[in-house]
């Protein structure tokens, strides 16, 4: 039966996403990365033994926050790339994708279902680390206030809402990374190639600021090279936009409007790369 004879179904997409999520949480890689990241973040509480200077708890909380966020970004990126590629190719290699797509299932449903399942797994990972980091900072804030009630009179306190916003934006960034990995997987022949290209794309997206600087330097001397650099800067998202950690703990605090614009930026890239992945996958022989 031709899948195009039936309308696109969010129910079938959700079913594929649910099965993908269950498959992912059973993988040892997910459990290993969760335990390792949790151990690192939980172990950060021992850093209060360090000398953070005369300001006391203010730099300590910022250090703990940056350390926990760094663990979330590193392990979250690793989980996003490897899990997305592995979950996609497990269907291809086991021939279950052929059986599934022989039914009235759109390839768009398959791609977006795989994406939502992988993104949900990364979301669970982010929620666990965000909750642990929030609890850690809450306890340390209480201990610092008990020892020095005036420690945060001039700012430096990290709110739970700021933690949730910053970590939530990282989850959106992982969504962009997952969809870009799916785009590579849609035409890639092996899981290894998709994983390697996923990390390569991750590096490119984090170096976008350098690409813009290079464009301004070479624009006058070489129009062609400048145009190529500018094109790459437009095609690949700039992951530095998602880094709002520097605003946490300051007097100005996080800008809610900026956070919403970054979220819209991420969702736009997810949709664009998603449609490109569907277009590429529809032309692939399974």
Strand content: under 5%
Radius of gyration: 22 Å
> Helicity range of the residues?
over 70%
Order of helices and strands: HHHHHHHHHH
The biggest beta sheet, please?
A: none
Overall shape: it is globular
The number of distinct structural domains comes to 1
Poorly predicted ranges: none
- What is the strand tally? 0
What gap, in angstroms, lies between the N and C termini? 17 Å
> What's the pLDDT, averaged over the residues?
83
Question: Can you count the helices?
Answer: 10
- Output the structural class: mainly alpha
In words, what does this structure look like?
The chain is built from ten helices and no strands. The protein is an all-alpha fold and 286 residues long. Helix 6 (160-187) packs across helix 7. It starts with 9 loop residues before the first helix and ends with a helix. 37% of the residues are buried.
Provide the descriptors you would attach to this structure in a database record:
mainly alpha, 286 residues, single chain, globular, 0% strand
What is this entry, summarized?
With 286 residues, the protein is an all-alpha fold. Helix content is 74%, strand content 0%.
What's the SSE blueprint?
Elements: H1 10-25, H2 28-43, H3 57-93, H4 96-101, H5 107-147, H6 160-187, H7 191-206, H8 208-218, H9 223-235, H10 256-282
Helix pairs in contact: 1-5, 2-3, 2-5, 3-5, 3-6, 3-7, 5-6, 5-10, 6-7, 6-10, 8-9
